[in-house]
Amino acid sequence: MADTTKNLEKAPAQETALAERTKDRPVFMPPVDIIEDANNLYIYADMPGADEKGVNITLENDVLSIEAQVAEVNFDKHTTTYAEYGIGDYRRAFTLNESFDRDKIEAKMKNGVLSIVLPKSEAVRTRSIPIKAG
Amino acid sequence: MKYLTPFRWGRRNLPAGREFEAHPLDVFQREMNRLFDDFFKGSDLRPWAEEMEALGAFNPQVNMTEDDKSITVSAELPGMDEKDIEISLSKDSLTIKGEKKEENEQKGKESYYMERSYGSFTRVLPIPKEVNTEKAEASFKRGVLTITLPKLEREKQSQKKIKIKAD
């Protein structure tokens, strides 16, 4: 049972050796689903609170990184009475080990879920080869 | 401890990779500990949350903030549509219900990571103050549900500052 455990609480992002952050707010690692079919690789990331303006996706040297800024929610004079989740930005990076058609990568943000479609390049696509009867 | 349990002597010398059987007493003690831990876990607004999460079911997390006019409840529901969310409000509790569906058909696809969770959920939250149920509002933006519950007039006034007289 322990192997199937999913952590539903937001996990802090793993610090990469990038520049230090100057903002004083937590950074979370968004949970993702990565799915592959014959032609594409799909990445879905849960990033509630972020919209398309705040998301930054970069692909550099086979490292795909996702960063999202969450708009500050400001309730004037509100005090927190009960809190289960923290509000912060999101960051996560993946190393891609296949070649993708870089010009055709598409990303979309809807209802707090980022979906990225990475089309495989012609060379690595799986093709079914018809067998001719002799 | 090892010296008091002669039946475990030498167990350490097993070749790596082989699991040794736990002694029934150990298992019993662990079970008892778990039972007591669970029993005394205290008042959680998410009963069974851990059990549900262990199964990978979706159980959204909520935050509650308050000022003198209203109570705001927000919940993170990424990937859901406002049509899939049902909110009901009674005098002293707020219920958020819904189902988060998997958007992608798995046929002919291979998945590498499955960290996101899906499923139906129900959260019932007690409301600490009396609120005007008629004027409650909800909005769903960027995967975050925000419910605003205005407090009743008399609730607003019930908090009164008491002055301390100096002699």
Summarize the structure.
The complex is a heterodimer of chains A (134) and B (167). Chain A is mainly beta and 134 residues long.
Explain how this protein is built.
The complex is a heterodimer of chains A (134) and B (167). With 134 residues, chain A is mainly β. Chain A has a domain at 22-72 and 84-121: Immunoglobulin-like (Sandwich). Chain A has strands at residues 11-12, 27-29, 32-36, 40-46, 50-60, 63-70, 79-83, 89-95, 106-110, 113-119. Chain A is elongated. The N and C termini of chain A lie far apart (52 Å). With 167 residues, chain B is an alpha+beta fold. Chain B has helices spanning 24-39, 49-54, 153-158, and strands at 62-66, 70-76, 85-89, 93-100, 110-114, 119-126, 137-141, 144-150. In chain B, the strands form two sheets. A four-stranded antiparallel β-sheet of chain B has the order 1-2-8-7, with no helix packed on it. In chain B, strands 3-4-6 form a three-stranded antiparallel β-sheet, with no helix packed on it. In chain B, strand 1 and strand 2 form a beta hairpin. At the A-B interface, strand 3, strand 4 and strand 7 of A face strand 1, strand 2 and strand 5 of B.
What are the defining features of this structure?
heterodimer; A: mainly beta; Immunoglobulin-like; 5-stranded mixed sheet; 4-stranded antiparallel sheet; 45% strand; elongated; B: 167 residues; alpha+beta
